[in-house]
Amino acid sequence: MNGEIPEKLRYFLKNGIKDVDDGYEYASELNRILNSDECQTSLSGKQIELLREYADKARKVGEINYYSEQKIKDLEREFFGENGILGYLGETIAPSKPVWPF
Question: Distance between CA atoms of 61 and 68, rounded to whole angstroms?
Fold first, then answer.
């Protein structure tokens, strides 16, 4: 366990919801990535187990549209807090800078 987030997992977490058609496909792809050697050596057993629980809940979402994307994001917040999965896995999330009105 080296603590670094595998690149495939990072890419999937940032873009995966747009690359799949439904919650079942999203969960299947996430589980496939979690089963890879790269994830098995980089993440702890606890992290992988929680990600699998999250995938099981996301599997039930149905076809991906705006509302199901929001539901998956809500599930992510429920499981991993406001920083999401990447924050849970240790990636620092930079706060967004305020936009000036002029």
Answer: 6
